[in-house]
Amino acid sequence: MRILLLGANGQLGQALHVALGELGTVLPATRDGRLSGGGEAEVADLSAPASLPALVERVAPDLVVNAAAYTAVDRAEDEPELAHRVNAEAPGVLSRACAAAGIGLVHFSTDYVFDGSSQRPWREDDPTGPLGVYGASKLAGEQAVREGGAAHKIFRLCWVYGPRGHNFLLTMLRLARERGHLRVVDDQHGTPTAVPRIAAAVAGALRNGPGRTGTWHLAAGGESSWHGFADAIFEAAVARGLLAAAPVLEAVPSEAYPTRARRPAWSVLDTSAFTRDFGLHIGHWREGLDEVLASLASEGGRP
Ligand SMILES: NC(=O)C1=CN([C@@H]2O[C@H](COP(=O)(O)OP(=O)(O)OC[C@H]3O[C@@H](n4cnc5c(N)ncnc54)[C@H](OP(=O)(O)O)[C@@H]3O)[C@@H](O)[C@H]2O)C=CC1
Ligand SMILES: Cc1cn([C@H]2C[C@H](O)[C@@H](COP(=O)(O)OP(=O)(O)O[C@H]3O[C@@H](C)C(=O)[C@@H](O)[C@H]3O)O2)c(=O)[nH]c1=O
Questions:
Q1: What radius of gyration do the chain's Cα atoms show?
Q2: 145 lies in a domain?
Q3: Cβ pair 183, 257 in contact under 8 A
Q4: How many CB atoms lie within 10 A of CB 187?
Q5: Is the CB of residue 158 below 6 angstroms from any atom belonging to ligand 2?
Q6: Is the CB of 11 under 6 A from ligand 1?
Q7: Rounded CA gap, 8 and 5, in Å?
Q8: For residue 69, how far is its CA from the centre of ligand 1 (angstroms)?
Q9: Contact of 29 with 4, CB cutoff 8 Å
Q10: Model's pTM, two decimal places?
C-alpha cells in the first residue's frame, strides 16, 4: 500500500511516518518539500487547497493521511481566514480528490470542537459548540471531509504531545528551566495523549478496520487538569534526570491566566466506540507520559 502523508513534519506526522511504515510505503509531504529530519518530501501547501488534487493524481496513492493543520489556538483568533482555509477548505478538497480517485482519507480533529459544558466524557454524536476560531475551523473540516464523499476515518484527538515539536510538555520543561515558579490552570480538564501511542493506534485501526468509515474519539485513558499534567511532568522529569528540581507550581483559575482564545473546561473524550470497532485502546495517559520522558532521557536529556 502507498500512503501519502500530509503534514509529515508535525509532531503527529513524524510519529505516523514511522508507525504507518508497517502498512506499506509512506510518501511524506510537507509545506516546503523538505523533511525536518533531513530528506525530501512532496510539496503540499494546505493554504493553497486548489493545488492538492493534482498532487493526489500525480502520486496516485492507495490512501491519504492528513496530519497537517493550523494548530496555533490563540493566533487563529487573528487569522481566521487562514485557519479556515487550512483546517476546513483543504480537507474538503482532499476528500473530493480521494473520492474521485476511489481511495480513503484519514483526518484528525480535536476536543476543541466541544464547548466544555459536559458532565461526562464526550461521545462522538454529542452536540458540538467550539469556543474559538481553531475549534470552529476543525469542526468545519470534519464536515467538509464527510461531505467531500471519500471513505474516511476522522479521529478526534485530545491534548496531544510528544518528544518533538510544539506542545505543552516541551513548553513546561522549557519554562521550568527558565523560572522557579509557574502558574498553571486547574479548571480545564482533558486527557494528555502521547503521539507515539496515537500513531500506533491509527496504524492498528487501519489494519483492523480498513473498510470502516466514520468519526471516532481517540485519546488516552483517565483525565487531568493542565495543572495536574504539569505536576506529573515535573515529578517524572526530575525522576528521569531531565530536570534538576521541580519548580513551584501554582494552581490558578483560567481568569488568572488570560489567553486570546477561550478553552473548554471539560475536554475528556469517550473512546469506547474506538475500542469496540477496532479492538484497541491507548492506555492510561500516565503510561504515555512515562514513555515520552523515557525517550527524551535516552536522547540525552534536553529536547
Ligand atoms: N496538538 C494538539 O494538542 C492536538 C492536535 N490535534 C490535531 O491533530 C493533528 C496533528 O496535529 P499536531 O501534529 O499536534 O500539530 P503540529 O502543529 O505539530 O503539526 C501540524 C503540521 O501541519 C503543517 N502545516 C501547517 N500549515 C500548513 C500548510 N499551510 N501547508 C502544509 N502544512 C501545514 C505544519 O507545518 P510546519 O512544520 O511547516 O509548520 C506542521 O508540520 C491536527 O489535525 C490537529 O488539529 C487534535 C487535538 C490536539
Ligand atoms: C504555558 C502555560 C499555559 N497555561 C494554560 C493555557 C491553556 O489554558 C492551557 C493549555 O496551554 P496551551 O496553549 O499550551 O495548549 P493549547 O494550545 O490550548 O492545546 C490545545 O492544542 C490544540 C491544537 C488542540 O487541539 C487541543 O487538544 C489542545 O491540546 O494551559 C497555563 O496555565 N500556564 C502556562 O504557563
A1: 19
A2: yes
A3: yes
A4: 18
A5: yes
A6: yes
A7: 6
A8: 4
A9: yes
A10: 0.97
Calculate how far, in angstroms, residue 198's C-alpha sits from the geometric centre of ligand 2: 19
Give me the catalytic one of 70, 112, 134, 161.
134
* 37 within domain boundaries: yes
Residue nearest to atom 43 of ligand 1 (CA): 108
Q: Confirm whether 275 is domain-assigned.
A: yes
The verdict on the CB of residue 108 being under 6 Å from ligand 2 is: no
Looking at residue 123, which CATH number applies to its domain? 3.40.50.720
Q: Which domain holds residue 148?
A: 2-162+194-221+267-283
Query: Is residue 186 within 8 Å of 251, Cβ to Cβ?
Result: yes
Render each residue's pLDDT in the chain as its tens digit; 303 residues.
999 999 999 999 999 999 999 999 999 999 999 999 899 999 999 999 999 999 999 999 999 999 999 999 999 999 999 999 999 999 999 999 999 999 999 999 999 999 999 999 999 999 999 999 999 999 999 999 999 999 999 999 999 999 999 999 999 999 999 999 999 999 999 999 999 999 999 999 999 999 999 999 999 999 999 999 999 999 999 999 999 999 999 999 999 999 999 999 999 999 999 999 999 999 999 999 999 999 999 987 654
Instruction: Give the chain's domain count.
Output: 1
Residue 243 lies in a domain: no
